[in-house]
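forwarding from the other thread:

> can someone predict this with adenosine-5'-diphosphate?

sure thing
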Amino acid sequence: MKILIVNAGSSSLKYQVIDMEGEQVLAKGVVERINIEGSQLKHTKGKDKYEIKQPIKDHVEATQLVLATLQDETMGVIKSVDEIGAVGHRVLHGGTEFSESVVINDQVKAAIRKCIPLGPLHNPANLMGIEACEKVMPTTPQIAVFDTAFHQTMPAKAYMYGVPKKYHDELGVRRYGVHGTSHRYVSKRVCEYLGIPQEGTRVIICHLGNGSSLSACMDGKCVDTSMGLTPLEGLLMGTRCGSCDPAVVQFIANNENMTPDQVLDMMNKKSGLLGISGTSSDMRDVDAAADAGDENAILARDMLVYGIQKYIGSYAAAMGGVDMIVFTAGIGENNGKLRERVMANFEYLGAKLDVAKNAACADGKATECIVSTDDSKVKILVIPTNEEIMIARDTLELVSK
Ligand code: ADP
């Protein structure tokens, strides 16, 4: 079966077509700047890359263009839309309603709509993507895969905040976590790779990308994660500040004559690596500036490394030890030097990095590999994430039922 994976943002729509026989990606691409001047579709089939520039006024037009491209004689990979057996949608927030992927119906859409206050940027866009596909391919089953679902196994002591309980009971204020599909993929894949069962394992996963989060997983189930009610909590990220005293919001708002919304916008979009380094939100630029001696870039990098170290330490404590520490996503997979900096502090835990092996697995050459020494009690690994294949597998499973 061929499955279409859709990840709709407010002005973008990313897609992949995966042939589930052999789990092969046939084509992928992104529609950018939907309803903004300069709309375009970037499409890749094998090694061939194509660009189509034309006005695209909404997600329905974007979906139509994607399907036309997929059926095109040169760029395409299908002869007719009927070849697409199902569509798997990435949905950011499923609140407490969804701990698993589901077939989309009116109730599911209503539940995704109910979660809009928890994912105000992503959930409306995800719904637009779903409704566009329903319109353009009305008989094809649609499946929702939630970024929050994997974290639903966290115990209350890990997901509750210390504000009066009524805010949890009445408003749903709690830790939800994000990147769940990546954490689920990596936590499963690392055990397959090592040829061991998930039962009895304690794994810390460091998903370090533009957005970053760590999770602690026991027996393959999430017991804690660093992102919270929203993706703002946790590590210093590309443009997000990560955890800080909540009073900072009021303090800056009062002193700068800003509203809380404006402060939060600044914390989401102008902080993190960008806000501290003043150079860039991209770790490659921050590294280059830091290596050239820029003090602010050095500080940003030090803050990121220190933050990861503190989470690893606390998750090892939370689980009574750790068996595997796994790095994934853009920075985790490619930045060997950062992994070396992070792991410098953990010989006390029995985690010893093999510096040469670690250095070899970097800079776009990342493959699945063990980067700890043979005698390291804790295995340190790099496992490239693959959220799309996880979405495709869930989709296939649900439509095969
Ligand atoms: P997103 O969260 O947007 O999916 P990614 O997982 O692609 O982001 O991660 C983006 C980060 O990964 C950037 O900070 C970038 O510096 C880093 N990165 C991506 N590719 C490489 C590479 N080949 N070498 C070093 N760093 C990389």
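The CA atoms of residues 336 and 361 lie 7 Å apart. thats all i got for now
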